[in-house]
Amino acid sequence: MNTATTTLAERLSTAAEKGLYNPSREHDACGVGFVTHLKGEKSHKIIADGLQVLENLTHRGAVGADPLMGDGAGMLVQIPHAFFADEMEKAGVTLPQPGEYGVGFLFMPQDADLRATCEKIVERVIAEEGQELIGWRDVPVDNSSLSKAADIAATEPVSRQVFIRKSNGDDQTAFERRLYVLRKVISNRVRAETNAVGKGFYIVSLSSRTIVYKGMFLAYQLGAYYADLKDERFTSALALVHQRFFHQHLPLLGPVAPVPHGRPQRRDQYAARQRQLDGRPSGLGFLRSARRRHFQALADFL
């Protein structure tokens, strides 16, 4: 094949036939860690230990050509109700009891007008889905540890949190299902009505139980960027951390390509894992069963 007249996509499409590439050999090299209190007692120490575990996984994360740009890092924790109640009280908003509201973490476009449009869509969909908007919160950040390259800085999103009251008498499990549907409807509506999805809009998490803080970070940058994670009032009984390494794959564009700010596609956690499963079909049944048991155990704990 004449590489001077073919595209990268065309050359990659014949990699299995012409070279040593075998899709069954694709694998991720991400680092994952979990910290918890066996009796379910919440504390800030769990958050601090989670951040330490994440930093200890630095060697499992990829670094870009810019040494201050990583493949992504994040942390899932239980919703810190007391912390959010204090923060929202400063804005004159009283939160319901734990489990009676959900928190969404959203990446928003830098453009103020486009961001306002996205917020209106979010609020409209919340009402259409029979839930009640409580309020918004700006997430305090410190980007001094991030790259100052103009093209990278231009992709930094505005981080906001939205609080949603349960308004139809559902139990918490049913409310979680409604929040899942709400997230999908919001994302599809924003995609249909604006170009914000390509300009920074993304729903990081939306739940009445857990919240995710993440970004296109190196391990140490997660705690440095989000002030919430260093606040002693921010507590949880568990912390699940992830340091992402996506690069042991063909550099294909599309659903398996890395996207800005640590936003892997939601398909069996991330697309790289799906490609790994695709290469081992004989083990799919076992893996699906194990995954169901794992998430049921986590749900029971929460």
What does this structure look like?
The protein is an alpha+beta fold and 302 residues long. The chain contains ten helices and eight strands. Strands 1-8-2-7 form a four-stranded antiparallel β-sheet, with helices on one face. A four-stranded antiparallel β-sheet has the order 4-5-3-6, covered by helices on one side. Helix 5 packs across helix 7. The protein is globular. It starts with 7 loop residues before the first helix and ends with a helix. About 9% of the residues have low confidence.
Using brief descriptors, characterize the structure shown:
18% strand, 302 residues, four-stranded antiparallel sheet
Counted beta strands: 8
Number of helices: 10
User: What overall form do the CA principal axes indicate?
Assistant: globular
pLDDT averaged over residues: 81
Protein structure class: alpha+beta
SSE string, helix = H, strand = E?
HHEHEHEHEHEHEEHEHH
Weakly predicted, low-confidence segments: 250-277
Helix content: 25-40%
Q: N-to-C terminal Cα separation, in Å?
A: 55 Å
Sheet-strand content, in percent, reads: 15-25%
Largest sheet properties? 4 strands, antiparallel
What does the radius of gyration come to?
20 Å
Strand order of the largest sheet: 1-8-2-7
Quickly describe the structure.
This protein has about 300 residues and is an alpha+beta fold. Helix content is about 35%, strand content about 20%.
